[in-house]
Design a protein that fits this description.
The strands form four sheets. A seven-stranded mixed β-sheet has the order 6-7-4-3-2-5-8, with no helix packed on it. A seven-stranded parallel β-sheet has the order 12-13-11-14-15-10-16, with helices on both faces. It has a six-stranded parallel β-sheet with strand order 17-22-21-18-20-19, sandwiched between helices. The chain contains 23 helices and 22 strands. The protein is 39% helix and 18% strand. The protein binds adenosine-5'-diphosphate (ADP) and magnesium ion. The site of adenosine-5'-diphosphate has 16 residues, from helix 11.
């Protein structure tokens, strides 16, 4: 607040908008990109496709135009070669006093084509004498918010604040890594890195600064995760499942409905090995939709039963829990195994009967929703818990499970959202990973097609053929939260439209705004075959199993992310028949969207899709990371591009912890201190396990 050009008002905005309260915070607010400020363009050279550019010229006059929300301030800016329009939608009153008519400015902004004229909205203007050293050449650009801009905290203002801080900090900044890491990884010092990340002396030094800071960030993240893992392994002994007995063998010989795939066998072996050692298992099982995870879950539970323990399966929704319950009860029929279902809508009386039986161990397999981890549910001797479709289930909830027993049960988390290796390493550094990379035999891959909405009538003819053959059809509409009303209207219109197109068939509708019970009823109509077409939002994304459904139509497919499209597609192709997935879009699409859709039509491989998704969208958006409980918030490293740095950071941190698990050696003191500081600050949004 005491720096020149800041003051209490701007300081408050910095705090509330970007959580900057100290010089240190400000120095760690890094540019999100760099631009070349050595070049000044002439107005004649400009077109509407340019990135940020600089011009040199004068404002000749201002004018306020438009009304209501369209009200704006315009100005004409000219140099010797021509003139261009400038536009402001905010600060309409103040701007003419700040940027004077007739004075020469260096303008910085992005030209945009507006109709067929080019203008520049909210440019930054500065007289040439105000430029400070280091500002010509490669220059950092800082993210700013609307509220920051309203108090003139734009990118250049932040840059000036940072320049002042660095000017004030004459001595070098304290190093935050030890000599070993610095020399092993050939890093420049923290001081040099911070100065060059803001004011690069050369492109070479900018690269070195970026490398140093990314590596450091990922190094500490890995150090943290690996330490937590080691700690847990040491602290948490696990139950020993020493044998495979009658439940498993009888099931295998008498009830197993089909030969296991090799991938299923491998994963069961991995689980068997884990649960045999006396170490508590924490395993993530990734397997594409339809890869047969349920069977793996059941086989693992049977091993628990053979050793006198109970097993549980937790699903994210009641529908899924119920489906699991029915599937598993059917699978273990005749083996003398007690299976029960417990969800939020289990009646009080029923609960009263169940709870004591769970406690005394009479119920051997309990299936349910989050109701399972409520405090009122006490297990006699829970040995293994399976968590299905984990992306609705965070680290905090997992921790709750560990605390339920004196000895924690083994945990197997199953997910159909394939997580790219780099990301998995970061997010689930504390979990071992198993992968089912093979679908059961005889599955025909879903055929995926991209169709323009204008051609939908031809599409309906083909869909009718499928219906005539007795198949069922999903039609999915996007639902984006901010505009839920409009989209719900879309959905309802879609519902009405569908009924008109297919008057001879029954249609049901499901969306997220319905009460769970209502939703259940509608879903059930489709599951039982009472209705042939289901119009829905993405609520059907997870888990529903209707093998008879062979067509998935996705409306406005351009509005879905890749992983989501893949999840939706996984709802069909579950029976033996050829299934289809139709991506409907309008004709005009961005390049990025076209790319997304073509990936969908080209591959059915969830891992390829997840990698592409990560590349196209960045890890923050990836389905699963947000809800996973690890809201890590990296300042500079980018998980989609910095996979190699991440692996290296992991190797470095592992080597250090292998040698000195508690970071007690003098040469590691600096690491211990920094790790503690980062944890306290929650600088990276790290989770802590108590
Ligand atoms: P997901 O991994 O998506 O949970 P499921 O466990 O629901 O997949 O299995 C999908 C379908 O595949 C089920 O109908 C199941 O009975 C069947 N299935 C599972 N394993 C095999 C196998 N080894 N061979 C043939 N079909 C299998
Ligand atoms: Mg499943």
């Amino acid at each position: 607040m005491y720096l020149q050009g800041v003051g209490p008002k701007k300081a408050a905005v910095l705090r509330s908008e970007i959580e900057v309260v100290s010089w240190e915070d400000m120095l760690y607010y890094f540019p999100y990109k760099y631009i070349d400020r050595s070049k000044i363009f002439t107005i004649r050279e400009i077109d509407g496709n340019m990135p940020y550019i600089q011009l040199k010229g004068k404002i000749s006059h201002y004018e306020v135009v438009g009304e209501g929300s369209g009200r704006r301030l315009t100005a004409s800016f000219h140099d010797a070669t021509g003139s261009i329009e400038l536009v402001w939608f905010r600060l309409i009153k103040q701007i003419p006093d700040i940027y004077k008519v007739g004075k020469e400015y260096i303008l910085f902004g992005k030209p945009t084509l507006f109709g067929h004229r080019i203008n520049i909205a909210h440019p930054e203007l500065e007289t040439e004498d105000k430029f400070f050293e280091g500002e010509v050449g490669v220059q950092g650009q800082y993210n700013t918010t609307e509220k920051m801009k309203n108090v003139f905290l734009h990118s250049r203002a932040l840059q000036k604040i940072i320049a002042q801080i660095l000017e004030n900090v004459k001595t070098s900044l304290d190093e935050t890594l030890n000599d070993e890491v610095i020399s092993k990884a050939y890093l420049i010092s923290l001081d040099e890195a911070i100065r060059n990340i803001h004011f690069p002396k050369s492109p070479e030094l900018l690269r070195k600064a970026q490398y140093r800071l990314k590596l450091e960030e990922l190094f500490y993240l890995q150090l943290h995760i690996l330490q937590v893992t080691k700690y847990r392994e040491k602290r948490l002994g696990g139950f020993v499942f020493s044998k495979v007995g009658d439940y498993f063998n009888n099931f295998y010989q008498k009830n197993l409905p089909f030969e296991l795939t090799n991938a299923q066998k491998r994963v069961v072996r991995e689980i068997r090995q884990d649960t045999y050692t006396g170490r508590q298992m924490n395993r993530l099982l990734q397997g594409d939709v339809g890869s047969g995870k349920t069977l793996v879950a059941l086989l693992s539970i049977l091993i628990a039963l053979d050793n006198g323990f109970q097993g549980a399966i937790m699903a994210p929704t009641e529908i899924l829990a119920t489906q699991h319950y029915e599937t598993i009860r059917e699978l273990v029929r005749g083996l003398g195994i007690e299976v029960a279902l417990l969800t939020g809508s289990t009646k009080k009386k029923e609960r009263g009967i169940l709870l004591p039986k769970i406690k005394n161990g009479e119920i051997q397999i309990l299936i349910g929703t989050h109701a399972l981890i409520e405090n009122t549910v006490e297990f006699g001797n829970l040995g293994l818990i399976i968590v299905d479709e984990q992306h609705r289930f965070g680290v905090a909830q997992r921790a709750k499970l560990w605390k339920k027993n004196a000895v924690s049960p083994h945990v197997l988390v199953m997910t159909a959202t394939p997580i790219p290796r780099t990301l998995a390493m970061t997010v689930y550094g504390d979990l071992d990973i198993s992968i089912i990379d093979e679908l059961p035999p005889g599955r025909k891959p879903v055929k995926t097609m991209h169709v323009y909405s204008a051609k939908r009538n031809n599409l309906y003819d083909s869909v009718r053929k499928q219906l005539q053959e007795g198949r069922q059809v999903y039609i999915v509409y996007p639902l984006i939260e901010e505009s839920e009303k409009i989209d719900l209207k879309n959905l309802q219109e879609g519902f009405a439209h569908t009924k008109e197109i297919f008057p001879e068939y029954k249609v049901c509708m499901v969306h997220g705004k319905m009460k769970p019970a209502e939703k259940e009823v509608e879903m059930q109509k489709f599951v039982s075959g009472e209705t042939q077409i289901m119009v829905a939002t993405t609520v059907i994304e997870v888990g529903v199993n209707v093998p008879n459904a062979s067509v998935m139509i996705i409306e406005n497919a351009e509005r879905f992310g890749l992983s989501q499209l893949h999840q939706l597609r996984g709802r069909v192709g579950r029976g033996a028949d050829q299934s289809f997935c139709i991506l409907l879009t309008k004709y005009e699409l961005s390049e990025n969207t076209r790319k997304r859709l073509s990936i969908m039509t080209e591959t059915n491989d969830g891992f390829v899709i997840a990698e592409e998704d990560l590349k196209l969208r960045g890890p923050g958006d990836l389905d699963g990371t947000q809800q996973s409980g690890v809201a890590f918030n990296l300042k500079i490293a980018n998980l989609s591009h910095d996979g190699q740095i991440l692996s290296y950071a992991r190797d470095l941190s592992r080597a250090i912890l292998d040698d000195d698990p508690m970071l007690e050696k003098p040469q590691n003191a600096i690491l211990k201190q920094q790790l503690k500081k980062l944890n306290n600050q929650h600088q990276m949004g790290w989770f802590m396990i108590s």
